[in-house]
Amino acid sequence: IRARCIDTIVATTRALGGVACLVGPQPLRVHALVLESVYPTLEEAIDNRLAIRLGALGPPLAPLLTVQLRPRLGFGVEDLRPIDSVDRVGAPLLLIAGTEDRHTTIVQSRRLFARAQAPKELWEVPGAQHVGGITTQPEEYERRVIAFFDQALRDR
Questions:
Q1: What is the per-residue DSSP string for 100-121?
Q2: Contacts of 18 (CB under 8 A, 6+ apart)
Q3: Is the pTM of this model over 0.70?
Q4: What angle do CA 149, 119, 128 make, to 5 degrees?
Q5: Which of 14, 28, 101, 144 is deepest in the core (most CB within 10 A)?
Q6: Closest CA to 13 of 74, 99, 76, 91
Q7: What is the enclosing helix (H) or strand (E) of 11?
Q8: DSSP assignment of the chain
Q9: What residues contact 132, with CB distance under 8 A and at least 6 apart?
Q10: Each residue's pLDDT expressed in tens, for the chain with a length of 156 residues
């Protein structure tokens, strides 16, 4: 998607890139932000992925993974909670969520959206799976993202 901007910073990011935007240093230095398929907490992301791979047996195994994070990687699940920092985004936000996303469920996306500050928009893409908005509805995706950036930058 092409953004027509002069002396303006906009960002579009998906999944883990969106997590990095939300848990990294704040405030973000952007004038508008589009996020897609961003999980609210690392615990939920791990549970969802284990359930996809192992069914009902997966989520109970999550603590065996999460207990290893701090000693092995230097951070814990409490450090990767976008839901705790989404309210600090100081720019208009468009959150895109697939209704068939099993990695970040629509319910989880709605919770993340509820915590964000206005101005904000939520686009629930019917039938889209994880980061599937652009492939499920490419023309509508482009139209919505460009319209969002146009409006957000006009209101600056």
A1: T-SSS-HHHHHHHHHHSPSSEE
A2: 35, 36, 37, 38, 82
A3: yes
A4: 65
A5: 101
A6: 91
A7: strand 10-14
A8: -----SS--EEEEETHHHHHHHHSSSS-S-SEEEEES--S-HHHHHHHHHHHHHGGGTGGGHHHHHTTHHHHHS--GGG--GGGTGGG--S-EEEEEETT-SSS-HHHHHHHHHHSPSSEEEEEETT--TT-HHHHSHHHHHHHHHHHHHHHHHT-
A9: 98, 100, 101, 125
A10: 444 433 446 666 788 888 988 998 877 788 899 999 999 999 999 999 999 999 999 999 999 999 999 999 999 999 999 999 999 998 999 999 999 999 999 999 999 999 999 999 999 999 999 999 999 999 999 999 999 999 998 988
What is the CA angle 133-134-139, rounded to 5?
115
* DSSP classification of residue 96: E
Choose among 40, 3, 1, 2: nearest CA to 18: 40
* Tokens found for residue 126: 């019917």
Over its C-alpha atoms, the chain yields an Rg (Å, rounded) of: 16
Biggest CA pair distance of the chain: 51
Query: What amino acid occupies position 102?
Result: R
Output the pLDDT for position 9: 60
